[in-house]
Amino acid sequence: MKRKFAIKTVPSTWLETEGRRLDCGPYMSGAIEARELLKKLSARKDYLQDLTKNGIAGIVNAGRISRIWVNDHDYGYPFLSSTDILQADLSNVSFIAKSVARQTPQLLIKKHWTLITRSGSIGRMAYARADMDGMACTEDVLRVIPDEDKVLPGYIYAYLSTKFGVPLVTSGTYGSIITHLEPHHIAELPVPRLGDVEDRAHELIQQAADAHVESVELRKQAGNLVNSICGFPEKLAPAARTFAFSAANSSSILRRLDATFHSPVAQQAEALTEAADGISLGDAGVKGYESNRMKQVFVEEGYGTPFITSGGIFSKTITPERYLRNQLLGEAETWRINECDTLIARSGQVGGIIGRGVWADTRLDGFAASPHILRLRPTSTDFPPGYVYAFLCLTDVGYQLLARTAAGSSIPFLPLDAVSEIRIPRKPSLAQRREIDALVKRSGELRKRSQELEIEAVSLVERAIEEGGR
User: Fold this and answer.
1) Which of 281, 301, 292, 365 is nearest to 335 (CA)?
2) I need a surface site. Which of 8, 168, 207, 369 has the fewest CB within 10 A?
3) CATH entry 3.90.220.20 includes domain 12-193
4) Do 95 and 235 form a contact (C-beta atoms < 8 A)?
5) What is the rounded average pLDDT for all residues in the chain?
6) pLDDT at position 75 over 70
């Protein structure tokens, strides 16, 4: 479980060294133990501010900004929230006006920086990849800008992500309701100098970043291929729902009377798939699965099946959020995620994650899916799984067709029967569908490899510290 009742006895000297703080944070996090272990290392240790550009000025809090949103990159910069920096796909983030960035130039980030969430769920970290270079980022994220003449940026990220670095970062936070992390809280965080280990850690982190960027490019290629072959525009509308009016035949409103289902954008998307010789997903042999709304009882690791929510599937790093008691799952396995499934977030607000999809690579195989995830599983070789995913999740036509099926007023959801009626184009030849399928599968392999390389880098640094800096 993420939170447990815990008790710990600490010596009074710890209160002195921590500035007589009486909140439990620094004493329960392992930060003091980490600091004591680092003191015993024979390796040289520098303060973090000694390794950042221009000292403490290289640990940046961008400051409060006014948010002015625009529709596209001609007028704005992609804007990353504190959640977005941890996501695998950044293609659907909002755009903030360029005028805001001109007033606050430190809003823009560059590759090789370490990004650390500084409020709310603090201490979550991301390494700024090449595809993030030049994007805007929320003021709720600290920027750690390495001085590359003194330290390799991948090592700084790997060290701060270790079981020693994270507690030291989070122990500096203050506040009872909304905690905050400021540059001076981590400026004197000790960073051990580990020689060749630093070079190897940086190399692994950079390889992980490059693999992820390549994965993103392969997905773009797959989506662009579908658009090009089928004659789809790259973008149908700036949002899932826009103010508009349209007319519909009486026969088409027998089942759905909600206006958004018959919007001009939805009608255009439907017409485009019909022109591309579309066939319903159900007739194409794509099976749909949804988890039963069973009682969820979570247990410790080793006693249950890894469980993931509709929000968790979008994360760059796939890890079990909790473990679901095996006896509740049943033998039908309608709950199970299989490799090569297309996972669709089925609940939420239109314009958010609802209707967005994820390719299930091997990291997700065998996970139990939340009831808020639809799983689409092709059974016909004529419609390879990567092609189904590319059409639904990498084209705006596919997304608009999914979003139009949302039903409900408070918390909309995607009915499985309506999703199964979405038409998938037959216009791409079988050879072209297989080419698209191969691009998606290769992209999934790279995304998995990226996570493995990052874990390897962090483990390498942790072992070096535990072994005394050798």
Assistant:
1) 292
2) 8
3) yes
4) no
5) 89
6) yes
The Cα 233–Cα 227 span in angstroms is 6
List phi, psi (to 5°) of 114.
-100, 130
**Encoding tokens for residue 68?**
């002015």
Grade residue 253 by pLDDT with cuts at 50, 70 and 90.
low
C-beta separation of 470 from 464 below 8 A: yes
Q: What is the distance in angstroms between the CA of the first residue and the CA of the last residue of the chain?
A: 34
Is residue 38 very low, low, confident or very high in pLDDT (cuts 50, 70, 90)? confident
Residue 459 one-letter amino acid: S
How confident is the model over 61-66, as a mean pLDDT? 90
More confident of the two residues 303 and 174: 303
216-444, CATH topology level: Adenine-n6-DNA-methyltransferase TaqI; Chain A, domain 2 (3.90.220)
What is the spatial distance between Cα 35 and Cα 165, in angstroms, rounded to a whole number?
A: 9
| Extents of the domains making up the chain | 12-193, 216-444
Nearest residue to 105 (alpha-carbon basis) of 57, 137, 140, 150: 137
Sheet hosting strand 373-378, strand order edge to edge:
286-290, 373-378, 342-345, 357-359
pLDDT tens figures, 336-378: 999 999 999 998 888 889 999 999 999 999 999 999 999 999 9
Q: Quick one: pLDDT at residue 177? A: 46
- 144 φ/ψ angles, rounded to the nearest 5 degrees: -105, 110
- Residue 44 predicted with pLDDT over 50: yes
The reply to whether 216-444 shares the fold of 12-193 is yes
The pLDDT of residue 35 is: 77
C-alpha dist (Å) from residue 415 to 88, 346, 463: 26, 8, 49
Which residue, among 439, 428, 430, 425, has the nearest Cα to 397 in the 3D structure? 425
Q: Which of 108, 103, 167, 164 has its CA nearest to residue 141?
A: 108
User: Could you give the count of Cα atoms lying within 13 Å of 423 in the half-sphere of its Cβ?
Assistant: 18
* pLDDT > 90 fraction of the chain, expressed in percent and rounded: 66
Q: Flag whether pLDDT at 437 surpasses 90.
A: yes
Find the DSSP H helices in 78-175: 98-103, 153-160, 165-170
Q: Distance between CA 22 and CA 84 in Å, rounded?
A: 33
Q: Alpha-carbon distance 240 to 261, whole Å?
A: 11
